[in-house]
Design a protein that fits this description.
By secondary structure, the chain is α/β, with parallel strands linked by helices. It contains 19 helices and 13 strands. The structure holds alpha-methylisocitric acid and magnesium ion (MG). It catalyses: (2S,3R)-3-hydroxybutane-1,2,3-tricarboxylate = pyruvate + succinate.
């Protein structure tokens, strides 16, 4: 692409009116994007793959289906997933944390790894797909049609403010990614033991929006078609870092009863639970409506678009004895109590949809009521908006829900979801496959390997998993190069 064209705001304008970009509402201009561009574009791989991903989502949406995938753990899983017919791959932050990180410190999913961890994983998986397709072509195995699968990756909370987010997005585009999700969580504060009644902690709506806009700006700077997925954790959130944004007011909780001490002085888990019970937490609007039903309409009209602090002043002018305290439930970190739920997720998704291609309310278990309400909430405001759904756990092992589980994909498709993924499925599959194979080798030695590992693998034509493929067939590429180099003259 000639650099005059690439750097001309008019060419960016033209691109923004193309089908993949026309629905995005950007708060910045083409001039700004042009001025931030490097002289040459560098996104060929990612763009080709991202357009392929967009086609997949369009097709499933038209056919009223949902694209299902799970996490790819390494190049072998990537090849197997292509062979069995998956159309997309998911690179999970959690699985990257469990298996390898850029700082070589595997561990639980805290999203505390350095921000190049997931892009590096994507690079490895993407390049392994290129290698497999090149190998198949050179060897004439008839598998050169085996598709390169678009990769969707986990960008977590962006790992910092806008400059870090933009660098992360740049790494993703360079990695060959086709889509990524960015969320509204505070980085690195997950608790796995539920201590202090703490689940997800989220940032205010405006900070979330700024993250998404920073990501989109970087994609625009790179002329990238990569799919931006806006994930919100508002459904499971228990706390928020700030009350500054008026859009968060319906979900911020305050004490309606004045207690002798604040939440931070309550001791232990049970003391904290008791404090919350006694404080009778509620949102400002609910509290005012309960204590002043006759004044509520007046209050509500006066305080549209006001945050909790401003609206509380208005409430006190209307009723000087009104008590509602959003400071007293603050945690020792300063976080405010938050009423998570599907309404909160809808509120965030409806504005995130303006700047992203797909919205996703992250929950860890399937809940048909939540899936339906979220879909209605989003589709009422943004008809046809792409939506994602994840199921991490909650699969009953006793068979009691088998029939329901079978119908989930078609239910989600009928609600308009286009992408359904099992974030930990790849890890479970790799673990189970390894356990069965390793058990056979350990218990039955060489014969166990022959009868229960290598022979079934050959029977399944699991090319990517066989040493033959990696050594002999792939080795042909190196041999061809050696022949081409010859004796050097
Ligand atoms: C989807 C997710 O972001 C991931 O990293 O795979 C995780 C999965 C999990 O920890 O359950 C998430 O939902 O936060
Ligand atoms: Mg994650």
């Amino acid at each position: 692409m000639a650099s005059e064209y690439w750097l001309a705001p008019s060419s960016i304008e033209q691109w923004w009116s193309s089908p993949s970009q026309k629905d995005i509402k950007r708060p910045y201009s083409t001039d700004t994007v042009a001025s931030l561009r490097d002289v040459f574009p560098e996104n060929h791989h990612s763009n080709a793959m991202a357009l392929k991903l967009r086609n997949i989502f369009e097709k499933v949406q038209n056919d009223k289906l949902v694209n299902l995938t799970t996490s790819v753990i390494d190049p072998v899983t990537a090849q197997v997933m292509a062979e069995v017919g998956f159309e997309t791959l998911y690179v999970s932050g959690g699985m990257s944390a469990n298996t390898d990180t850029a700082t070589d410190d595997p561990g639980p999913d805290l999203a505390d790894y350095t921000y190049d961890t997931v892009p590096k994983k994507v690079t490895t998986i993407y390049r392994s797909q290129l290698l497999h397709s090149r190998t198949a072509r050179v060897n004439g195995t008839g598998k050169h049609d085996l598709p390169l699968l678009p990769i969707i990756a986990d960008a977590d909370s962006g790992h910092g403010q806008h400059t870090a987010i933009m660098k992360l997005v740049k790494l993703f585009v360079q990695s060959g990614v086709s889509g990524f999700h960015l969320d509204d969580l505070v980085s690195g504060v997950k608790r796995h033991d539920g201590k202090d009644g703490l689940s997800s902690v989220i940032v205010p709506s405006n900070e979330y929006l700024k993250r998404l806009v920073a990501a989109k700006l970087q994609l625009d700077i790179m002329g990238s078609e990569v799919v931006l997925i806006a994930r919100t954790d508002a459904e499971t959130a228990t706390h928020i870092t700030s009350t500054i944004d008026h859009r968060d007011r319906p979900f911020i909780l305050g004490a309606t009863v004045e207690l002798p001490h604040h939440y931070i002085h309550a001791e232990g888990n049970s003391g904290k639970d008791e404090w919350k019970r006694e404080a009778k937490l509620s949102t400002l609007d609910e509290a005012f409506k309960n204590s002043n039903p006759d004044l509520y309409d007046n209050f509500s009209n006066q305080t549209k678009d006001l945050n909790v602090s401003e609206a509380l002043s208005a409430a006190r002018k209307l009723d000087p004895s009104f008590y509602w305290n959003y400071e007293s439930p603050r945690t020792s970190e300063g976080w405010y109590a938050y009423k998570g739920g599907v309404e909160a997720a809808i509120s965030r998704a409806t504005f995130a949809a303006n700047i992203s291609d797909m919205v996703w309310a992250c929950a860890h278990f399937y809940n048909s009521d939540v899936a339906e309400r979220f879909s209605k909430g989003v589709q009422n405001v943004h008809p046809g908006k792409w939506m994602a759904y994840n199921i991490t756990g909650g699969f009953p092992q006793d068979g009691s829900a088998d029939n329901e589980i079978k119908t989930i994909p078609s239910k989600l498709a009928s609600l308009g979801y286009v992408w359904l993924f099992l974030p930990i499925g790849g890890l479970t599959a790799v673990g189970l496959g390894s356990k069965l194979a390793m058990r056979a080798i350990k218990d039955e030695g060489l014969y166990g390997y022959l009868s229960q590992v290598s022979r079934p693998a050959a029977a399944h034509h699991a090319d990517g998993t066989s040493p033959e493929w990696w050594w002999k067939i792939m080795g042909k590429l190196a041999d061809d190069a050696a022949d081409a180099i010859g004796q050097g003259s």
